[in-house]
């Protein structure tokens, strides 16, 4: 239930792992819970960008801000790169 709650609040797998680990949940159970959530993390990251950073492709600064946002939310770097795409050059 905590995994679904964190997903609905816009967190990525890294943040969720850290949160559950801090609560004393075993690593094996954390991985099972994330698998059972059956979420496409790339789609989740793209939805967050659509809600919070619609203009991230307009300037390099907006692109960097969007990428940092996803990183802070616990998304792995490969998902961040795929979600934001190539950095625009103004």
The class by helix and strand makeup works out as: mainly alpha
What are the low-pLDDT stretches, counting only 5+ consecutive residues below 50?
Answer: none
Q: Give the overall average pLDDT.
A: 90
The geometry reads as elongated
Share of residues in strands: under 5%
Q: First CA to last CA: what distance?
A: 43 Å
Total strands: the figure is 0
Total helical elements: 6
What is the succession of H and E elements? HHHHHH
Radius of gyration: 14 Å
Q: What about the largest sheet?
A: none
Helix percent band: 55-70%
Walkthrough of the structure:
The chain is mainly α. It contains 6 helices and no strands. It has helices at 2-8, 13-22, 27-37, 41-52, 60-72, 77-84.
Describe how the helices and strands are arranged.
Layout (H helix, E strand, L loop, with lengths): L1 H7 L4 H10 L4 H11 L3 H12 L7 H13 L4 H8 L6
Helix pairs in contact: 2-3, 4-6, 5-6
Q: Key features?
A:
90 residues, mainly alpha
Overview in brief:
The chain has 90 residues and is an all-alpha fold.
